[in-house]
């Protein structure tokens, strides 16, 4: 797949001496949804800010659709929309005027029909004449998205877009993200809601202490780094794992009705067949078997903790 953003050896050291990014290399594919995960202070916002032209890099280069972000800044700004973390909006402007003004900043001709549909898609049409100070935090977040999309960018950066947004508004936003992506817009998002990244992203990048630990297709990442567990439900409670099963490192649940077997999905042999044979030999009566795979959150925590 063709790359639309190319980042090479990107580093950022602030005047205080803090190194926010350290030699980050990343290619963002055209038309994908990339989720950037990392703890607070990991460098996610700095990375986005550099690509969007808000912060200057110390070393390295970034190109957007073949344009250098420093030399060809007008072309790259035109291609990018940004929804920042902070609710940076004027108090007395109306929703319509604020979004329409943002479109004009990029030199786009007036297009009331496009802006009307945009506000309707974000459930803002009924608020178009409301002053921004009258809106809730969630509605202000929607206005930021509308402003970012006002000039019809090809790339949209969402920096913690659902922070402070209730569940209903959050679900509506992700529907909007999918719709935009279906229309060809490349989406890059940061989020603390890891389950959202697991649901919506095509690829996942994990950042810690300014370093990009990995970037991987979501499903490949979960397959490579995830583990699976087999939950064995027994018909009768037991007081301890039988000695004959000691080689399988089984865990006995608190209710004493379940045995948990953890295994590596990449191993040639999972050990499940021999385990079931061994269970049969103990005389234990099985009621049910269930398997589950580790979540993206568990993978993320293990990667950052192991660094």
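Q: What amino acid sequence fits the structure above?
A:
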């Amino acid at each position: 797949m063709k790359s639309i953003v190319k980042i090479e050896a990107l580093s950022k050291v602030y005047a205080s001496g803090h190194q926010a990014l350290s030699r980050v290399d990343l290619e963002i594919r055209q038309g994908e949804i990339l989720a950037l995960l990392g703890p607070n202070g990991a460098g996610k916002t700095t990375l986005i800010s550099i690509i969007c032209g808000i912060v200057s890099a110390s070393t390295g280069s970034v190109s957007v659709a073949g344009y250098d972000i420093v030399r060809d800044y007008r072309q790259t700004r035109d291609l990018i929309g940004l929804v920042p973390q902070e609710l940076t909006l004027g108090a007395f402007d109306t929703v319509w005027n604020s979004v329409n003004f943002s479109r004009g900043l990029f030199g786009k001709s007036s297009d009331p029909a496009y802006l009307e549909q945009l506000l309707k898609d974000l459930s803002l049409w009924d608020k178009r004449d409301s002053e921004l100070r009258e809106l809730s935090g969630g509605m202000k977040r929607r206005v930021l998205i509308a402003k970012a999309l006002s000039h019809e960018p090809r790339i949209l950066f969402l920096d913690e877009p659902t922070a402070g947004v209730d569940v209903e508004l959050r679900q509506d936003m992700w529907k909007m993200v999918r719709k935009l992506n279906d229309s060809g817009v490349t989406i890059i998002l940061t989020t603390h809601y890891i389950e959202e990244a697991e649901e919506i992203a095509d690829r996942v990048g994990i950042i810690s202490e300014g370093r990009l630990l990995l970037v991987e297709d979501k499903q490949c990442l979960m397959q490579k780094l995830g583990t699976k567990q087999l939950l064995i439900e027994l018909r009768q409670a037991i007081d301890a794992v039988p000695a004959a099963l000691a080689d399988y490192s089984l865990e006995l649940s608190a209710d004493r009705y379940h045995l948990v077997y953890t295994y590596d999905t990449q191993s040639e042999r999972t050990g499940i067949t021999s385990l079931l044979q061994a269970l049969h030999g103990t005389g234990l009566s099985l009621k049910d078997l269930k398997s589950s795979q580790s979540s993206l959150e568990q993978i993320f925590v293990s990667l950052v903790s192991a660094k």
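Q: And what stands out in the fold?
A: The longest strand covers residues 3-13.
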